[in-house]
Amino acid sequence: MVKEIDSATLQLRIAADDDVHLIDIRTPGEVAGGVIPDAAFISMHLIPSRIEELPKDREVILYCRSGTRSYHACTYLMEQGFDNVINLRGGIISVGLAAASRWCAGWRCERSPGYRQSCHEIRVIS
Description:
Blueprint (H helix, E strand, L loop, with lengths): L2 E3 L1 H9 L4 E5 L3 H4 L8 E2 L5 H4 L8 E5 L4 H12 L5 E4 L2 H16 L20
Helix pairs in contact: 1-5
């Protein structure tokens, strides 16, 4: 069974400086639309070839757009012996919906280099 975390709990854990490793597994085109601060980027299809880059000594939280691909990536990693992986339930969409009200209060909003919109201008496209 895949462990999951919601965006509100993730925000609290990061604010408390919990030692978590965030990995964005979306495509480069999706990442250009915005990221969670301090997340590493490994496209889902590259996980098998870059598996050695993932830490085993701390929690690894994976996210995608909606949480489905990251759920499957967590399943794959668990099959490879990782017991420290967690799926961000709802993906970055859940973060985007909460950004203007909670996340922006204590976090710098980050977009791809050269992108100048603030988090208050983020539009969640379904």
